[in-house]
Amino acid sequence: MSFDDPTLVACEYESEERFVARRVVFSDLVEGVTAEDLAIEALREVGAARVLEVGCGLGDFAQRVEAELGARVFVVDVSPRMVELAQERGLEAQVADAQALPFRDEQFDAVVANWVLHHLRDRDRGIAEIARVLRPGGTFVAATFSNKHLIELYDWLGDPSVGELEFSRENGAEQLLPHFGRVERRDADGTVVFPSRGSLQAYLVSLIRGAELADSLPAFEGKYRARSSQSIFIAKKP
User: Fold this and answer.
1) Distance between start and end Cα atoms, the chain
2) Rounded CA gap, 36 and 23, in Å?
3) Alpha-carbon gap, residue 50 to 78, rounded angstroms
4) Which of 1, 50, 167, 231 is deepest in the core (most CB within 10 A)?
């Protein structure tokens, strides 16, 4: 199963329920700094006034950028439902494909794509589009996981390949460098704490790849902990 299959992506993000169940492992259940925290700080460092988020999901990150940084934020997503949710938050949102962005050249100070690039069938084209809409000297911030994210969990359940991504901590820089003058990686490593077996099972059921692992989850009491391995890439346009 490929994360960049357009049919799969359309199905997975047609509604928000499964996405909400998955996203807890990079937000709600993480002890320590998250990749989204690092992304906010990266935007703060460059003083971005006009920001585009590609793949806005629920719109909560974009709303956070507006509230914490005072930036004007535009968001796009291929999912009409995600755009609807973002609009309900008062965001300037529209349906659009990252591989064909509906914006003129050099329009934004910064572009953000959190856990999105692995969903692009033509990542090189998508990254080129992101570079195109950035002003000279602009910043692209991309959040992703390491292939070792939650590796103890997937090893325990017998499928360590579940967390491998087409754009990850391990391979992201080499995909960005052809389009940007400089690429920096910052890591956010911590712990994901599932409060109960039921919460862990609900997470496993929501996975795009590996949902069948929920059926083999052994009985246990109390909390379950696994390493969280998140990263952001900060890419500068010449």
Assistant:
1) 36
2) 11
3) 21
4) 167
